[in-house]
Specification:
This protein is an alpha/beta fold. About 30% of the residues lie in helices and about 30% in strands. It has a single domain (about 5-190), classed as Class I glutamine amidotransferase (GATase) domain (Rossmann fold, 3-Layer(aba) Sandwich), CATH 3.40.50. The chain has helices spanning about 15-25, 90-95, 100-110, 120-125, 145, 175-190; strands at about 5, 10-15, 30-35, 40-45, 60-70, 70, 80-85, 115-120, 135, 150-155, 160, 165. The longest helix has 17 residues, at about 175-190. About 45% of the residues are buried.
């Protein structure tokens, strides 16, 4: 099976992470989870609670499931992967300082391999310098991550820009996965 790399860390958003982990194999792609080290990571759930007695302006975070990274970033050979999936949550906020990971992310953009991003995953593409002249979407609070590096932000369910497909949150996955999987199949058949 062709492989899709999914970098994560502690505080990866589990809906952002589990859905591609299970969805992509249905179309013949193995998802390889990578982390700063090969180990289990703590996931989180982000939501704006309904009927809260004190309203939340932003998502509330609480513990969720765990997921194992089977490879450390330093051991990733990006040539072995057909595509890249950038999951969200708080993990990208600190992973964007990992220069090894940023080099891996750059590889996918430079080689025009399919890349998908959800929510805060956009922070990795921005930190890697891959969004200049690109159009993308993410949660509204990440608009600056796109525009401050020369990208164009659209508040849409899904944005397609060449090899790059982005969506705001996991609630937009029904619009994201069809074009992302199509790009993976096209790239894999070339």
């Amino acid at each position: 099976m062709p492989k899709v790399l999914m970098p994560i860390g502690d505080a990866t958003e589990m809906m952002d992470t589990w859905y591609p982990f299970f969805r992509l194999p249905e179309d013949g792609f193995e998802v390889v989870v990578a982390g700063p080290e090969a180990r289990f990571y703590h996931g989180v759930m982000h939501e704006i609670p309904p009927d809260a007695t004190i309203p939340w302006d932003i998502t509330r975070e609480q513990p969720s499931y765990h997921i194992e990274a089977t490879v450390a970033f330093r051991d990733v050979n990006p040539d072995e992967y057909a595509g890249l999936f950038l999951s969200g949550g708080r993990a990208p906020e600190y992973l964007r300082y990992d220069t090894t990971l940023l080099n891996v992310v750059r590889h996918f953009f430079e080689q025009n391999k399919p890349v998908a991003s959800v929510c805060h995953g956009i922070e990795l593409a921005a930190a890697a310098g891959c969004l200049a002249g690109r159009t993308a979407t993410s949660v509204a609070k990440c608009q600056l991550d796109i525009t401050q590096v020369g990208g164009n932000y659209l508040d849409q369910v899904c944005v397609e820009d060449g090899n790059f497909v982005s969506c705001r949150t996991w609630a937009d996955f029904s619009a994201l996965f069809k074009p992302f999987i199509s790009r993976l199949h096209e790239a894999n058949s070339a």
